Amino acid sequence: MTHHQLDLVRADREQWLKFYYFIRAAFSVAWVVAAFAVGPSSAAIAGALLVLYPAWDAAANFVDALRSGGLAQNRTQALNVLVSLVTTVAVLDEHERSARRLRGLGDPVRIAPARNRDPSLEKFRRAVGHGA
Predict the structure, then answer these.
(1) Rounded distance, CA 71 to CA 13, Å?
(2) pLDDT tens-digit profile of 72-91?
(3) What single string gives the DSSP state of each residue in 11-72?
(4) How far apart are CA 35 and CA 29, in angstroms?
(5) Global pTM?
């Protein structure tokens, strides 16, 4: 590669990074504004925002890693993508559990048929004020 070609590659990389960091910053500012402005008044929007941020982080890191030689060459970004995806799934799972509890459906993991409940446990729960 000639010196001129290296300068073009370097300029392209610098332009990409400026654009990338501007978009990341703009998204973060918009997310914070939405979280404070709309989040407190709507549980659905607050939940969506909580899921959106780690999903966005995963997508942004994935795209940047691809532009920078791929995930194999950028192991820290690959790890960041993985952690952000796991966080997104965990937040989605907890959001669904919370929604089920709010709808009165209970936690799907903890629901036990009434016929399988231990009567002594039920008596204890009533005694300590936790109901059935």
Answers:
(1) 17
(2) 998 999 999 999 999 999 99
(3) HHHHHHHHHHHHHHHHHHHHHHHHHHHTGGG-HHHHHHHHHHHHHHHHHHHHHHHHHTT-TT
(4) 10
(5) 0.67
